[in-house]
Specification:
Distance between the termini: 83 Å
Shape: globular
Oligomer: single chain
Number of strands: 9
Strand content: 25-35%
Helix content: 25-40%
Radius of gyration: 22 Å
Order of helices and strands: HHEHEEEEEEEEH
């Protein structure tokens, strides 16, 4: 009798484990985000942004002071690096991270050759057809193999994660700048285009951005 009870108990455990495994697999198939986290670069799958800038979003009545304020915020940043995206992309709770190879440390104590930059001001949304929308951003992700000036800080996640994660400096309007590309073009809609660095349909706003970018690069890269 005891042997039968033990067999029934063992059989119940096996059934429970198998059931949990099936439920987990079913959940993985029904949830878009875990699938997106695995095998490919999300930046190549993003189809649109949820919004982009126009003249109503950035008041340019005191553009010079705005640029000075941005430079001062950059000076307060914990870590500043020049780095190139490797093409590896990861999503953690809908927040997108890009792996970069550090080429130069301008400020801070970043001793890692490769780090993950967390775009904590944006999230991604994946619809039932697998199309990806970048939410909360009006400038593009970092383009693979281009060199960027990045303002960031070490994440608390590093205490328990094998990934060396740095969060972009959210006290700045723009936390990274493409050093390999001088010009930007106007956006005509919210379709995502990796060639566009900053999305705006206003020539005045784009002029302001380009001026700010040049001043920041001159300030932090040419010391």
């Amino acid at each position: 009798m005891k042997k039968i009870i033990k067999l029934v108990f063992l059989f119940s455990i096996i059934i429970s484990i198998a059931g949990a495994f099936l439920v987990r697999n079913y959940g993985m198939k029904k949830t878009d985000i875990p699938t997106e986290m695995k095998d490919f670069s999300l930046e190549k799958r993003i189809t649109k942004l949820d919004s982009y800038s126009n003249e109503n979003d950035i008041e340019l009545y005191d553009a010079e002071q705005m640029i000075e304020d941005e430079i001062e915020s950059g000076k307060e940043t914990q870590c500043i690096v020049e780095a190139c995206p490797t093409g590896c992309t990861y999503v953690n709770n809908t927040v997108l991270m890009q792996e970069v190879e550090v080429k130069k440390v301008i400020k801070g104590n970043c001793e890692y050759k490769k780090i993950w930059i967390s775009n904590n001001g944006s999230t991604i949304n994946v619809d039932k057809d697998g199309e990806v929308t970048l939410v909360g951003y009006d400038y593009g992700l970092m383009k693979e193999k281009n060199k960027y000036l990045i303002f960031c800080k070490a994440s608390e996640i590093n205490k328990w994660s094998n990934r060396k994660i740095y969060e972009i400096d959210d006290s700045m309007w723009f936390s990274y700048f493409n050093l390999d590309k001088d010009s930007n073009v106007l956006a005509t809609d919210n379709n995502y285009d990796m060639e566009i660095e900053f999305y705006t349909d206003s020539s005045d706003v784009l002029k302001f951005y380009n001026s700010m970018k040049k001043r920041i690069i001159d300030e932090f890269c040419n010391e």
